[in-house]
Design a protein that fits this description.
mainly alpha; Arc Repressor Mutant, subunit A; 2 domains; three-stranded parallel beta sheet; two-stranded antiparallel ribbon; 5 strands; about 45% helix
Length: about 160
Amino acid sequence: MHVWQSEVDKLQAYPNAEIQKKLRPSFDGLDFDQKRIFLDIACAFVGENRDFVASVLDSDDCFANANIEVLVDKSLISISRDDNSLQMHELIRSMAREIVREESNWPGHRSRLWILSDVKNVLNENKATETVEVLHLLQEESSEKVHIDATSKIFGHRLSVSQG
């Protein structure tokens, strides 16, 4: 049982390379804004209301509603009929997160942060760079305090902080 759980954890953190190779062309065919929105959704907005996400993303003039429709048309995301929330298949989400991980070995140099330990380390040590665009912080996952320094290099740039 421990071996299987370990394998599941490994695949969630580092998806199967063969599967990733098959999914990657669907990402590569997107334009610049579509790629950004896709990665934003994968790293911070799965399960969030479509209208809320569009309003956050439109603050950067990226035509979020039109680009969300493109992502739906390409079957990269779906919209729940029940609550209008954005959904994404776990394999596609894993591919997106792997694309972000490939940006740098150091989380503070990646465009998006969603793993609580990475977020805490980057914020507590004030090690974020201007590369960070999206930071997903789920406080209910931890009772630890996270120090956010408003003078950090990341504030003042396009930064979406999602606190679920």
